[in-house]
Amino acid sequence: MAAPFGGHAVNLAAITAALTAGPDTHPDPGRRWIATVALGAGQLALGLGAGLAMALVLLSPPVLVTAVAGLALLSALGSSLAGAVTEPEGREAAVVTFVVTASGMTILSIGAAFWGLAAGGLTALLLHRRSPSEPPAEQPAPAVPADQRS
With bands split at pLDDT 50, 70 and 90, how would you rate the model's confidence at 43? Predict the structure, then answer.
């Protein structure tokens, strides 16, 4: 019921307060109040600083805000791309999906996210399709250490 009035912030504060009041904070329950007071001071500082940060963002040119947001997302993009192309059997489909989605194309008023998934799925189907009579690809035998060879 409190969500329209900022109740989500109360829930987040309750979670962090529970973390600072728990036994992991300090073995002596009589000393745990220090962490809770420090948390409260930190949350007050962040709350007051949020207004200043918002004022600075509003005064900044929009291109600067966009550039900073893009820089902040570079590591997430890099790790996601690295994870997508790690497995060789799905690499082509992952790259096609990324490129088509990043193109921003719109066909029939349908956005690039759909077309990226469709193109990646089609690529995966075309590249990894086997006929029923074709035997599965053989896996290489595992390497045997030199001291265990007979």
Answer: confident
